[in-house]
Amino acid sequence: MNVVLDHPLVAHRVTLMRDHETPPKLFRELVNEITTFLAYEALKDIRVSAVDVVTPVAKAKGVKVNEPRIILVPILRAGMGMLDAMLNVLPYAKVGVLGMQRNEATAEPVPYYAKVPPAKDGEELALVIDPMLATGGSACDAVAQLKKLGYKRIKFLNLISAPEGISKFESEHPDVPVYTAAKDERLNSHFYIVPGLGDAGDRIFGTL
Ligand code: PRP
Ligand code: URA
Fold first, then answer.
1. 158 partner at 20 to 30 Å CA-CA among 37, 122, 127, 202?
2. Full residue range of the structural domain in which residue 62 is found
3. 206 burial class (0-12, 13-18, 19+ CB within 10 angstroms)?
């Protein structure tokens, strides 16, 4: 399943984020805001239990989030840019990180670090975050690593997707839904997303 956010408030922010003149401070703020919208969409089916609440006026029926373990998994380094927004909406989530660097010539992901707690019973909800789904290599490898650790409930949230990455991801991990803020046209010969936004890590961290 691939969900593309279709909302003018998201499209407005994605447009500003693409602009090559947008400086890192504003870029980070936009990543934050768009990630909040992604979380809103991706967590529509989060598990809840019924609770009663007493308002100043009357008794009411309410709900309480009931996910005993949520693990946020940013893919280093650009995924870190989405972490604060996710922790704002899920303050009790745990965080595991996966380090991955694309080989610049082949775009193959090269894993260099992994610190994710193993799943206990497969009931954990793992949310992988990374702004870019280009060839799909990094996201596919990250999800494969989580499955090896025993995670069964996994979602992938990203900002900009290329059709090539979506196809690869859907064929390797058809059980993992993808939530994205924009689906772009294609990859160029350097495996960058067109029109995209350039190198997400460089734009977040100001390392252009
Ligand atoms: C970027 C991005 C993804 C990956 C996407 O990371 O953040 O992790 O590329 O490309 P793919 O779908 O073709 O795998 P990069 O490897 O540039 O590392 P960085 O986050 O450290 O900049
Ligand atoms: N990684 C990025 O940061 N940008 C792209 O366009 C592709 C991969």
1. 122
2. 2-205
3. exposed
- To the query of whether residue 180 is one of the catalytic residues in this protein, the response is no
* pLDDT tens column, 52-96: 999 999 999 999 999 989 999 999 999 999 999 999 999 999 999
Q: Tell me how far the alpha carbon of residue 180 lies from the centroid of ligand 2, in angstroms.
A: 14
Decide if 49 contacts 63 (C-beta within 8 A): yes
Phi, then psi, of 33 in degrees rounded to 5: -65, -40
Catalytic residue among 22, 36, 69, 202: 202
Q: The domain spanning residue 82 has which CATH number? A: 3.40.50.2020
Instruction: Tell me which residue has its CA closest to atom 7 in ligand 2.
Output: 192
Q: Is residue 102 flagged as an active site residue?
A: yes
The bound ligand whose nearest atom lies closest to the alpha carbon of 187 is: 2
Query: Residue 114 in contact with residue 99, Cβ under 8 Å?
Result: yes
Q: What pTM value is reported for the model?
A: 0.97
Helix and strand tally (H, E) in the chain? Answer: 6, 13
pLDDT of residue 208: 86
Catalytic annotation, pick one of 106, 175, 186, 207: 106
Q: Which atom of ligand 1 is nearest to the CA of 101?
A: 16
